[in-house]
Amino acid sequence: MTQSDLTPKYEKAYQVILKRLKSGLYPIGGRMPTESELAAQFDVSRVTIRKTLDMLVQDGYIESKQGSGYRVLTLSPASDTCLTSFTDAMLRAGHEPTSKFLSLDHFTKGAAKLAELPDALQDMDITRVVRLRLVDETPRMLVMTYAPTRLLKNATAADFPEKGPGQSILRILSARFKLDWSAACEDISPVIADENLSEIFEVALGYPLLKQACSAFDDQGAMVFHEDVFRNGPVSFNLSQSSRTPRHL
User: Fold this and answer.
1) If both were cysteines, with which of 59, 84, 130, 242 could 103 make a disulfide (CB 3.0 to 4.6 Å apart)?
2) Which helix (DSSP H) or strand (DSSP E) does residue 51 occupy?
């Protein structure tokens, strides 16, 4: 008997549906097939497929609303506040998020450009990806993503699409570069637009903006990446006491 034969039917269905989600078959904000339709597709009972869907709800991919079935929330469930997918949130709200790739820079350890990064990134070569995030063609976020160069090996501009669900930096880091993280810390502070930010966001000098500094860590506590995000607009938080255990394909 193979390991596949021992896998419960609801777990097999979970893996298949998750692959469908990540391939874009079920769009963010869209409705999932009904329990009856999925049960027929997988040749299982509605009780079994309901357990599969409950797992996807627990893991943060979909939500269930009485009387209206299941809706796709995100392809990158957050493990912390600053790890929520901006791309998915905008798609879910009916907006069109896009990205403008600005630069891919490499710095050797000790470079002056790295002086303000967390200490954990000071003693290694670092790669920085700079992108402008837009919503309905309006500039909303300037995102600077820093990671050890060894983790972003052979990165090019082509790795960072500018449209569609694939533009999510969380999915790029996970799918393309196989980065894995389980926790994060975040700092939010007010800043004012200097000449560069004023031009990028098309606002006046001194205009108030928000800066989010987010660091993500793996299970051993090593920093995987750090982001400095400058935002033109409010930040909303949805805090919950519930927790989830991610399942990996």
Assistant:
1) 130
2) helix 46-58
Average pLDDT over residues 171-179: 90
| pLDDT for residue 239 | 46
Decide if pLDDT at 151 tops 50.
yes
Class for the domain spanning 3-72: mainly alpha
Query: What tokens appear for 216 in the block?
Result: 């993500």
Beta strand 62-65 with 69-72 is antiparallel
**Tens of pLDDT along 103-140?**
999 999 989 989 999 999 989 999 999 999 999 999 99
Which fold would CATH assign to domain 81-231?
A: Chorismate lyase (3.40.1410)
Q: Is the dihedral of CA 221, 222, 224, 226 positive or negative?
A: positive
3-state secondary structure of 106: strand
Q: What residue ranges do the domains of the chain occupy?
A: 3-72, 81-231
The DSSP secondary-structure symbol of 22 reads H
DSSP per-residue letters across 170-204: HHIIIIIT-----EEEEEEEEEE--HHHHHHHT--
| Distance separating alpha carbons of residues 41 and 48, to the nearest angstrom | 12
